[in-house]
Amino acid sequence: MMRVHVNGEQRTVAAGVTVAGLLTELDIRPERVAVELNLNILDRGEFERRSLQEGDRVEIIGFIGGGAGQGGSWPTIG
To answer: pTM of the predicted model, to two decimals?
Structure first.
């Protein structure tokens, strides 16, 4: 087990878990979010390949679209 920070909160996860594994654990659909790992935005294709390390900082951002004439925003998920 190891500790990482997800959206500012410390979490314990399995050693070597991938970003995709973390999203699954959090019940978050990867196609609906952007992920920043240690201040770097990840391409969605990296989610399966990128393993987390002790102390990593992950920010998960989800897009919410508005109705007609409404702008969207990027709230933090988690």
So the answer is: 0.81
